[in-house]
Amino acid sequence: MAVQIRYPHEVYQKKDKNNKDWAYLDNIIVDDWQYLAICDIDNVKKTPSVIFAKKFNFNIPIDAAITSIQIDHDYHREASQTPIKITPPVFKIITKNKTLKEESHLNAEIHPIERTLTFNTDGLSPEDINDSDFEVEIIFPENKNKNEGLLFLDFIRVKIHYETKSYHLSAGETNTYFPDKNNPLEKVIGDTFKYSLYFRNKNGISEEKQAVKIHFSEGLEIENYYFKSGKTNLLDDENNSILGEDEFDTDNLIWHPAIRGKGVSAFRIVFKCTSEGVKKIYSSSENTDVTPNFYVNVFEKGHDSKVHEFEEKTLKWENELEQGEDLVPTNQPVSIKVDNVSMEFEMDREKVDNLKEYVIKSIKRDLKPKIYFKALKDVSFKINKGERVGIIGFNGAGKSTLLKILSGVLKPTKGKIYKSGKIAPLLELGAGFDHNYNGRENIFLNGAILGYSKEFLESKYDEIVEFSELEEFIEVPIKNYSSGMNAKLGFSIATIVEPEILILDEILSVGDVKFQKKSGDKLKQMMGSGTTVLLVSHSIAKIRELCSRAIWLDKGKLVMDGNVNYVCDSYIESAKKASEDEKRNLEFE
Asked: Which of 403, 391, 380 is nearest to 503 (CA)?
């Protein structure tokens, strides 16, 4: 299943002297609730003009099957004491050959609410959707009471869900749709496509790693790769630990499938076309036949190649995200390397209230010896540039300690940390503030603690103040700030850099609702720009949503490191045996 999401490039309204016109209509082309199309309803013209949205510029493959169309939208009324009353509008999808019609679900409320309409697409072809005449019509009913007021329309977004012709590749197997010399995939230089390989263990249990060699022509390069998540038929040893997981040797182009009983391991590679000509791909293994040749014909840029896709449907790839966000770059440098790191804290076994008591107990040798608590125990892992990694574990597992070490707040007792690039640590916002200083002075103080130079902070000072929305309070001592104002300033300082590494202890909700949206957008921008992300969260759902990989810590030890769904599933299963204190405030759903 594939989906294309588009916003209109043109929005206009039907001019009617009996209807009320819309202002700022072009703003709904961009999905942003801060900029709204507005219609001022009065007693004379109670009905807003009909709106048309067009030029969505879809390019659905011509051999695809359209499964559904969804229109996401929002409309709402102003929050006055006597607001207007508008019932749901009618939406029409208009094509050359067919018109689809649905009524929205909810009346115009006083708050923005994103609504979704789903249309039955029987008889609708890719040509109908790709055609320039494809448009959406929105017909609003009239105001149902005598009050006057504003109606807002925020955005229109259309999603086309479709299925494409599939090519399947399994070790030693072929099928009708496999791309061959007579019917290759057609791509142009710069295009990418997916090549998927299944390894079937038909000979019973084997505890030795298998080797599947990937062969491909010059003019193709591996851009990304990833494995199918899931733990079906994985073997456990006596200690109930996994004997082997999927690995890919990027130097020798060898895939080592997970050690399993009978069953299937699956591997997907994203290739990029770098030169013209017919390219061939195949895979080989000592224990299975050589896979059939897979052909791709690459043309120069601008060539009008066939509209078709390579995508298998026989297995579900649970860890794939929208727009390939879950892909793991193969040729990226290491951003973070943690090498046998341990962290030990001294802890007093008794409380001594004053120096006199301490001296007396010391002379009498009544002082109980200190105890040492190991928060981390020989933890090692590597994170490549661009990866999103979630850190999970029960309370007291060492998650926050690890982030503080990576942020430079703590120095490990043992082991080494390697970090490449600028780091934005969002842990305890404003933790380094001096409350006797004003906001301006704390920008330079806190910025210095985060490692920013004075010259850098001076060049970014206006930008920090503007983003924090504290212009009129910047000379006020921050002991007079509210907690929300402190957090705003701390967030603005911490995120002023464009970091290579972003470290988050929980997803932050900073300040008021407006600033929360702004700070959330800022974080999404940082996370979507190729930044390496480490995230600790109490919510497993949030880890699954934002990360492609998870590291599970338990009592300071690294228990598991791998695909986010596989690790989270194992973690949730182990929670059944954890104590209530270990699970307090954690969300497993």
From this structure: 403
Domain 185-329, CATH homologous superfamily name and number? Immunoglobulins (2.60.40.10)
* Residues belonging to the chain: 589
> How do residues 541-552 score in pLDDT, each as one tens digit?
888 877 878 899
Secondary structure class of 121 (helix, strand, coil): coil
Q: Tell me what percent of the residues of the chain surpass a pLDDT of 90.
A: 13
Q: What is the pTM for the complete model shown?
A: 0.45
Question: How many C-beta atoms lie closer than 10 Å to residue 284's C-beta?
Answer: 14
Specify the CATH number for 338-422+498-583; select among 3.40.50.300, 3.30.110.30, 1.20.140.10, 3.40.50.720: 3.40.50.300
Higher per-residue pLDDT: 211 or 291:
211
For residue 405, the Cα-to-chain-centroid distance in whole angstroms is 24
- Which residues, at least 6 apart from 21, have a Cβ–Cβ distance to it below 8 Å? 13, 15, 39, 49
Q: What number of other Cβ atoms are within 10 A of residue 174's Cβ?
A: 13
Inter-CA distances, 562 with 406, 416, 518, Å:
20, 22, 32
The residue type of 513 is V
Of the two residues 130 and 259, the one the predictor is more confident about is 130
Q: Does the domain at residues 2-163 carry the CATH identifier 1.10.1330?
A: no
Element (H, E) at 51: strand 51-54
Helix, strand, or coil here: 147? Answer: coil
Write the pLDDT tens digit of every residue in 523-580. 767 766 668 888 888 888 888 877 878 899 988 888 888 778 778 888 888 888 888 8
Residue among 102, 125, 127 at smallest CA distance from 115:
102
Where in the chain are the domains?
Answer: 2-163, 185-329, 338-422+498-583
Q: Measured between alpha carbons, how far is 208 from 258 in angstroms, rounded to an integer?
A: 10
